[in-house]
Amino acid sequence: MIVNNLIVETFGCHIGKYSERLKVTNKDGVLEQAPLLHLQSILISGRGVSISADAVEACCERGIPIHFVDPTGYVYASVMSNGLNGTALTRRAQLDAYTSPRGVHFACAVAEGKISNQATTLKYVAKNRSDTEPEVFDALRSAADEVQDHVATIEQLRRGELDDIRAALMGAEGSAARRYWQAVGVLFPESYGWQGRKTRGARDPINSLLNYGYGILYGQIAQAVVLAGLDPYAGFLHADRSGKPSLVLDLIEEFRQVAVDRLVFGLINRGFRVGQDEQGLLDVETRKRLAEKVLEHLEAEVRHQGRRFELRVVIQMQARELASFVRGERDQYTPFRISW
Q1: What's the pTM value of the predicted model, to 2 decimals?
Q2: DSSP-assigned letters across all residues of 185-249
Q3: Which are the contacts of 253, defined by CB distance < 8 A and separation ≥ 6?
Q4: What is the pLDDT of residues 121-132, one digit of tens each?
Q5: Which end of the chain has fewer CB within 10 Å, C or N?
Q6: 190: exposed, middle or buried (Cβ count in 10 Å: 0-12, 13-18, 19+)
Q7: Is 80 left (phi over 0), alpha (psi -120 to 50) or beta?
Q8: Helix (H, G, I), strand (E, B), or coil: what is residue 328?
Q9: Separation of CA 3 from chain center
């Protein structure tokens, strides 16, 4: 059996290496086996899960990242090979870019890409409602235009210094996001209890699904950043803070809508069952099914640069493009823009 992404969340499980495969076992025996040849990532989302040093070594030798995610979707640790840390040249160029026009260009590009993708997503979810729900269609299309209008603000900021314009940049991005999340509320049945967008600490079903989905996506972005030789903690749009992976948070912005938002909106409208524990957190079964859906979705093809690629590949391409841009090998960084 081919397993591309191994997800382990059951308390008491152990991940060990046996010949050229990983085995997930517990007191009842073997639960799952994953040949290393096809494995792309390991996601450990449960408590009481252990992994052997041999399994970690085998994954690092093959470039397979191991991500540890808490029940809210927060990635609190990732294990990758020391050999994937890239070159000093790229990291020096990345740090130098912060105080150059390249830093401003990238920060503006990321914000613009996110806003454009939010507007496109609103048009995407509206397109089949013109006949069946014309009022919803009109509301979503109107909101899409209002979200897109914030790109003009960003264009006006491109001539400033990054430290001087960041607050205004984040303000424009935040205003667009508030309108986007206000607009998508019409898509959700009242039974899901949607009261607006909430990040960490959310306990309602939809925000919990979104936050956990972003956590899965975060692992993919972090891997791409490291593979490209970039420093995940030296960002541009997101300010530096100890322990904050600012560059990962920068690059994830242009992928949230296509990798997670559209998926979660579709699941909710198809009656996806959301199980929660007594604390309001997604239960083990829901986390596992959602993680599988997100990882499958990353295998879907999207149009990019005039061709079709798996979304996972586009993430890697964008990280490599950013590395080339900060090294001065490209004149521009172009954010990923989704189609509808």
Answers
A1: 0.91
A2: GGGS-GGG---S---TT--SHHHHHHHHHHHHHHHHHHHHHHHTT--TT--SSSPP-TT--HHHH
A3: 110, 111, 113, 114, 173, 237
A4: 999 999 988 889
A5: N
A6: exposed
A7: beta
A8: coil
A9: 21
